[in-house]
Amino acid sequence: MPLGEATLTTLLYLMLVGMFYLAIVVAVAAPACLLRHRFYLRPALRTLWRVFAFLVILLVVGAVAQYFWTTAIWGRFYYSTDYVYGYMPFLPMTQRIIDFEFGGKRGALNGISLTTLNLIWLAFTIPVWALTIQIYRRLFRISAAPPTTTGHLSPA
Fold this sequence. Notes:
The protein contains 4 helices and 2 strands, in the order H-H-E-H-E-H. The protein is mainly alpha-helical. The protein has one domain (3-140). The chain starts with a helix and ends in a 16-residue tail after the last helix.
């Protein structure tokens, strides 16, 4: 696929998958955060902000992976009619995705098995999740609070 077309599919990925993630935040995460914090707004919003930040990081890292997937894998190892959703970090390839009919055309595998394609998908996906978690942890510095001392020695 030409690089200009791959860039366009990545922008479409950001837009469409971003709307999907936003729907997850509104329909699932917001009610779950409110219930978890017993409808106390401030802690619920703090948790919701972290969920939102994680999904934004996953969206951006996933878009980079989708760009590389589109330029290196799609069209070379398989062909599908919907290459915007060709790579999703939480949805492995299925025969149904490949066989999806659009405009009278269907996709196909190009000399590899579906298992091999899913192993390639896994090789893309593990770094996506690892990098997303690493960036998230660096942003929020998730660690144990440092111990507090009072300056007094306790009897042992």
